[in-house]
Amino acid sequence: MISHPEIILEAKGVHFAYPGEAGEAAAALSGIELAVRRGEYVALIGPNGSGKTTLLKHFNALLKPSAGEVLVGGLSTAAESNLPAIRRQCGMIFQNPDNQLVATTVEEDVAFGLENQALPPAEIRGRVSEALRLLGLSELAQHPPHLLSGGEKQRVAIAGILAMRPRCLLMDEPTAMLDPGGQSEVLDCVRRLNREQGITVIHVTHCPAEAARAGRVVILDRGRVAAQGPPAEVLTDLPLLHGLGLSGTAATELAALLREDGFKLPRELLHGWELIEHLCSSGPKI
Can you tell me the distance from the alpha carbon of 285 to that of 149, in angstroms, rounded to the nearest whole number? Predict the structure, then answer.
């Protein structure tokens, strides 16, 4: 059982290795310990190959640990009988929304997963209508998905997951293939679902500005948790980030350079608007 009723996702001493050449296994996770509470928004960041996507797939039971245990809502992913319930709780969103769109209209696409569950038609229509409304897609219900913008496509993919009524949204760099407008569109939508619907979000990203939207940032390095905490704490620790080949937000990096030139700026600056406010109020102190 899970150690606390508010914990929905838990990795306990999780190890995982991908098969390698000549039978040698390549370690991807090395003793991960991580607990996520219901309603949290957690950003996973780290260098390439640090284990971010591998860990995310463990929470949906797409992968299973070679040692240790993963619990989803108290259910172990090791038991085959738990997998349907686990996958109903955790929906996954991938980088390319085109890979998740399968129908000829937006409405049919959102209904696809529900139809596979053989739900009554009236319930399917109600859930689809609700998901489209929550994602701001009602006016696009009869549009072909392939004619939508990148941001709209990703919102359709999220609506399809949301219609399944998951407790968790697992996102693997969902904005990587979108333009800035599409990125904001998707991130604003996800943040709203987290705040208003209480959906737990685990967001894998390479972008510090995206990670700054989360309530907690977890850094992975070589399959281990290297650091975790509030964004204003983790993403402003530039020695830590730079040592792992990562960077802070643009505002954090610029503030560090300005401090070197004599500006008195607090070290916890994370967002551009915060930096602007301090520059306007204080000015250089040389």
Answer: 47
Q: Is residue 157 classed as helix, strand or coil in its secondary structure?
A: helix
**All domains in the chain, ordered by first residue:** 38-64+74-229 (3.40.50.300)
User: Mean pLDDT per 10-residue run, the chain (286 residues)?
Assistant: 74 92 75 96 95 96 95 95 92 87 91 87 93 90 92 91 91 89 88 92 95 96 96 96 95 93 89 89 59
Which distant-in-sequence residues (6+ apart) come within 8 Å of 80 by Cβ? none
Buried/exposed code over 98-136 (b: 16+ C-beta within 10 A; e: otherwise): eebbebeebbbbbbbbbeeeebeeeebeebbebbbebbe
- The strand pair at 216-221 and 224-229 is best described as antiparallel
The SS3 of residue 59 is: coil
Phi, psi of 102 (to 5 degrees): -125, -15
Closest to 63 measured CA to CA, from 48, 80, 77 = 77
